[in-house]
């Protein structure tokens, strides 16, 4: 199982789309508050469609809580503010892919303390970012591809 972590997501439709992605891939979704919406909102559930009940979801008050709960885990931090492309990492089962909120990305303090585990999705010059749900899908499916090539079943 892979893990998607969203830190302080703001747009319910993005979270709903990522929830559907997690159900489709057998991944766990971790939401770190404060959230910019209630997970009971119709917009989240509409984007997640009828998959919401099948979602493996955990909510957290802080990122530190996740790190304490999973002390041996490998965390990868996705940001447009770093240089190392995500495809240069060798992903493993149980890895955590961490994404920041839509308007600010990951906190600079978090990136600074995890610089060696920070990855980016390369984009053309002048492109600020791409949609959060799209980003999560790109990196998650690369990790699944690598696991499949390593002889582990995709899901």
Summarize the structure.
The chain is α/β, with parallel strands linked by helices and 155 residues long. Helix content is 34%, strand content 16%.
Walk me through the topology:
Elements: E1 3-7, H1 12-25, E2 28-32, H2 42-48, E3 56-60, H3 63-69, E4 75-78, E5 96-99, H4 108-113, E6 118-119, H5 132-149
Parallel strand pairs: 1-2, 1-5, 2-3, 4-5, 4-6
Helix pairs in contact: 1-2, 1-5
Q: Could you name the key traits of this structure?
A:
155 residues, Alpha/beta knot, six-stranded parallel beta sheet, 34% helix, alpha/beta
Low-confidence stretches: none
Describe the oligomeric state of these chains in a short phrase: single chain
User: Which bin fits the share of residues in helices?
Assistant: 25-40%
Task: State the CATH superfamily name.
Answer: SPOUT methyltransferase, trefoil knot domain
Q: Biggest sheet: strands, sense, closure?
A: 6 strands, parallel
Total tally of structural domains: 1
Rounded to the nearest angstrom, the distance between the terminal CA atoms is 8 Å
Q: What is the radius of gyration?
A: 15 Å
Mean pLDDT: 91
What is the third-level CATH name, the topology? Answer: Alpha/beta knot
Q: Shape, please? A: globular
CATH classification, class level? Alpha Beta
Q: Strands across the major sheet, in which order?
A: 3-2-1-5-4-6
Known CATH architecture: 3-Layer(aba) Sandwich
Total number of helices: 5
């Amino acid at each position: 199982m892979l893990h998607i972590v969203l830190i302080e997501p703001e747009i319910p439709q993005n979270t709903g789309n990522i929830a559907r992605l997690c159900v489709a891939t057998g991944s766990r979704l971790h939401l770190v508050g404060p959230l910019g919406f209630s997970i009971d909102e119709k917009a989240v559930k509409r984007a997640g469609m009828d998959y919401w009940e099948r979602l493996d979801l955990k909510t957290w008050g802080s990122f530190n809580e996740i790190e304490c709960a999973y002390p041996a885990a490998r965390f990868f931090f996705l940001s447009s503010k770093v240089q190392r492309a995500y495809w240069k990492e060798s992903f493993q089962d149980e890895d955590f892919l961490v994404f920041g909120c839509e308007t600010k990305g990951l906190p600079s303090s978090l990136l600074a303390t995890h610089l060696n585990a920070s990855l980016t999705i390369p984009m053309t010059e002048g492109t600020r970012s791409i949609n959060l749900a799209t980003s999560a899908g790109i990196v998650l499916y690369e990790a699944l591809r690598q696991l499949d090539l390593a002889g582990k079943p995709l899901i």
